[in-house]
Specification:
about 210 residues; alpha/beta; Spore Coat Polysaccharide Biosynthesis Protein SpsA, Chain A; about 20% strand
Length: about 210
């Protein structure tokens, strides 16, 4: 499993890094919820994101749903390996990405025991792969204080790796359609170049 033992934990488990897929938005510019989007071959974007996180050693994978949550949950349930994913509902999803992120942080904090860190990706980065996530995770040991972010030829992207000590202050700081980017910059997150692996581009509009 990705990561190392967390010296702050009580010894019940080795370091556990959970994955998070943010997929609650309505996708206004995209023309519909991205949680329902598919690749040209019909593979759901949700499947790509979940597989990338799971193959990188993240467990469990929390999938945050909001707009069209019932349809997205049905799509998720039909995916091979869907047992690796746990649905988290962001009832306030209309407040923007911050609502999705807060829902994920609350769910992770409520786990027993909670994971040491979260690898967070949005659903709309369809070329994201496990190798990119592994590079961010494996660059250095992971503990509760870890704060790390992939960059693609210098451009900040995903995954973001959020150690447990950052969850509460991050949840308190985000507003509206804002993710973790400002927090990561303000707290000098470690940047991990991954532009040789993927583009890391998020898609706001249909290709």
């Amino acid at each position: 499993m990705a990561g190392s033992r967390d010296a702050h934990d009580d010894g019940r488990s080795a370091t556990r890094i959970a994955g998070v897929v943010l997929a609650a938005g309505a996708g206004t510019r995209f023309g519909g919820p991205k949680a329902l989007a598919t690749h040209p071959d019909g593979t759901p974007w949700l499947a790509t994101a979940i597989r990338a996180l799971a193959d990188a050693g993240c467990s469990p994978v929390l999938v945050v749903l909001g707009a069209s949550a019932d349809a997205a949950a049905a799509l998720l349930a039909a995916l091979p390996g869907s047992g690796r994913a746990l649905v988290v509902r962001a009832d306030d999803w209309a407040d923007g990405m911050s609502a999705s992120l807060r829902a994920a942080l609350r769910a992770a904090a409520a786990a027993d025991p909670p994971p040491v860190a979260l690898a967070v990706v949005p659903v709309d980065v369809p070329d994201l792969d496990a190798a990119t996530i592994r590079r961010v995770v494996d660059t250095a040991p992971v503990d509760r204080s870890t704060l790390r972010q992939a960059v693609f030829r210098g451009r900040p992207g995903h995954p973001a790796l959020l150690g447990r000590d950052h969850w509460a202050p991050l949840a308190a700081s985000v507003r509206g359609d804002e993710g973790a980017r400002r927090y990561l910059a303000a707290h000098d997150a470690q940047l991990v170049e991954a532009g040789d692996l993927t583009t890391g581009e998020d898609l706001d509009r249909r290709p």
